[in-house]
Amino acid sequence: MIHPTAIVDATARLADDVEVGPYSIIGPNVEIGEGTVVGPHVVIKGPVSIGRNNRIYQFATVGEDCQDKKYAGEPTRLEIGDHNIIRESCTLHRGTVQDEGVTRIGSHNLLMVNVHVAHDCAVGNHCVIANDTNLAGHVTVGDWAVLGGSTQVHQFCQIGAHVMCGAASVVLQDIPAYVTCMGYPAKPHGINSEGLRRRGYPAEDIKAVKEAYKTLYRRGLSLDEALQQLHRLGEDHDSVVLFHDTIKAAKRGIIR
Question: What is the pLDDT of residues 173-216, one digit of tens each?
């Protein structure tokens, strides 16, 4: 299952059925779970843990030192879950001790060609990150988010669950859950109602999220006033609670 031209460090721990393609290099302190396929010309540098049934395509760089001038060789980590597709030339960097020391990518994600995930990022589950998208350091991406091609995300931004971000957007502030946005800088353009329908959200919940969006963006309220109304709306609709909480937890302010 390991091509004779591949180089696998003696300390790397690979499940018995892991495939490693020609000329790939797997360094020390790397763990790879069952069913994962590593294509040709891939470089994996530990400490890295990769779960089950992932597919990593050619020329990807997984677990490299971060692009942070403060980094001084500390043994930080990259953790990748299960059932991810990591396409050609993606670059996924380990964390820094200035944060938790870990970059995390969940499960069932699709990272398209040339995606960059910088140090200390946390990507959830079921996300689609399209070609040439760059996540700067310390970025958080919630479950089911979709980032269009060439999206550029500023460091420390938080992107909520179920967000749909248009191609070539520049994200400079946090995006609340459910919101669709695009532009430079990214501006809100409604909620991702089609995505919610595809994921089985009841019509009543989608209606409540739309009402929450209008409360925040259409009624001329201050942020504190909007949060108060969203809190009351969330008492009857659990779907609104996520919207409310991502706004309240914003670190860089929210897109307006």
Answer: 999 999 999 999 999 999 999 999 999 999 999 999 999 999 99
Rounded-to-10 torsion of CA 104, 107, 88, 60: 40
For each of the domains in the chain, give its residue range(s) and CATH number, in order of start. Answer: 7-138 (2.160.10.10), 195-248 (1.20.1180.10)
21 belongs to the catalytic site:
no
Residue 212: CB partners within 8 Å, gap ≥ 6? 230, 233, 234, 237, 240, 243, 244
Active-site residue, selected from the candidate residues 39, 137, 142, 148: 137
Is 17 an annotated catalytic residue? Answer: no
The catalytically annotated residue of 119, 126, 154, 244 is 119
Q: Pick the catalytic residue: 39, 63, 106, 120?
A: 120
137 is catalytic: yes
Q: Name the burial class of residue 101, with classes exposed (0-12), middle (13-18) and buried (19+) by CB atoms within 10 angstroms of its CB.
A: middle
C-alpha span between 209 and 67 (Å, rounded): 38
82-139 pLDDT, tens digit per residue, is 999 999 999 999 999 999 999 999 999 999 999 999 999 999 999 999 999 999 999 9
